[in-house]
Amino acid sequence: MSAEVAVIRFPGTNGDRDCMKALKIIGADPRIVWHEDCDLSTASAVVVPGGFSYGDYLWPGRIARASHVMNRLRDFAASGRPVLGICNGFQILVEAGLLQGAFLRNATRRFVCRSVELGVAQSDLFTRGVAAEINLPVAHGYGCYFLPPREHQLALDEGRILFTYQQDGFDNGSTGRIAGILGEKRNVLGMMPHPERAVDSRLSGGAAGREIFESMIGGRR
Amino acid sequence: MPREGILDPEGAAIRDAARRLGFDAIEEARSGRVVVLEVADSAGEATIADLVDRLLVNPLIEECRWERIE
Question: Which neighbouring-strand residues pair with A31?
Fold first, then answer.
């Protein structure tokens, strides 16, 4: 039986279709969940895709924290099942309190849309079988992830920083060059790069993102 | 407003633009946001403070001041 994956859609989400496609490619059974529908009970994983939920009003992800689906998502995360937030989805998970930290505008003050080289740390849930260095596309203007020094050190000590931007000239100002980080229970991952845009090796983005989705749904595929 | 010491790219952009326009006296700019709420008389200060905390301000990176105007 293929793994049911809920892909949450807010007004302004735009990464949902790519996530659906990526999940179908790897043999999962994804479905779109509108943010008011809330039913995540039968899902084996949840993806919060990127975009501009609620037009980034107040600041990215902030309005989504008050959305109906959020309490269900907190319950879902508490159950230990995987939650993956991508780009604006990462921002939403931070605003919902599922991940620590805060987001600021890129230090460069420019929207950045390109492929970046990432260092990958090991996680049984999200990076099993993923190479130690991969390339994934990023596309964000508000991607400067801020983590206070104490929380940063703790995340380093606990091996929760799964993705870091490599020293290739890319710097959006994020604390410790963090591109993706796990929550304290290690089943919630927020990442700025877009794995759903790198699932087909015939296209220029490569296929490194595919392995992240495959790792996430693991044996349930 | 962004807290002291927190990166403020928007403020930096405003400062640079001001200087380009010849306002050499502008040494630094910081940029925040203003939210105006119309509130029922029955709502106490605790209600506003709670809303500020839960929706309007991120205390990790921002500081905030609010006042009630009749």
Answer: A6
Q: What is the pTM of this model?
A: 0.92
Ramachandran category for residue A58: left, alpha or beta (phi over 0 → left; psi -120 to 50 → alpha): left
Q: How far is A29 from chain B (nearest CA, A)?
A: 34
The ipTM assigned to this model is 0.79
Q: Would the CA dihedral through A155, A191, A88, A59 be positive or negative?
A: positive
* Spatial distance between the Cα atoms of A209 and A211, rounded to a whole number of angstroms: 5
Instruction: Tell me the backbone φ, ψ of residue A83, rounded to 5 degrees.
Output: -125, 125
- Of the candidates A58, A62, A144, the beta carbon closest to that of B7 is on A144
CB count within 10 Å of CB A37 equals 14
CB atoms within 10 A of CB A220: 14
Condensed to tens digits (0 to 9), the pLDDT of residues A120-133 reads 999 989 999 999 99
Average pLDDT per run of 10 along chain B, which is 70 residues long?
Answer: 90 92 94 93 91 93 91
- The alpha carbon of residue B11 and the mean position of all alpha carbons in its chain are separated, in whole angstroms, by 11
Please report which confidence band the pLDDT of residue A167 belongs to, taking 50, 70 and 90 as the band edges.
confident
Interface test with A, best of B61, B62, B63, B64 (most A CBs within 10 A): B61
| Residue that has been written with the tokens 């630094």 in this structure | B28
Joined tokens for residue A160: 């929760």
Length of chain B (residues) = 70
**Looking at this protein, which amino acid is placed at residue A131?**
A
Beta partners for A180? Answer: A163, A191
Give φ, ψ of A51 to 5 degrees. Answer: 140, -145
CB atoms within 10 A of CB A56: 17
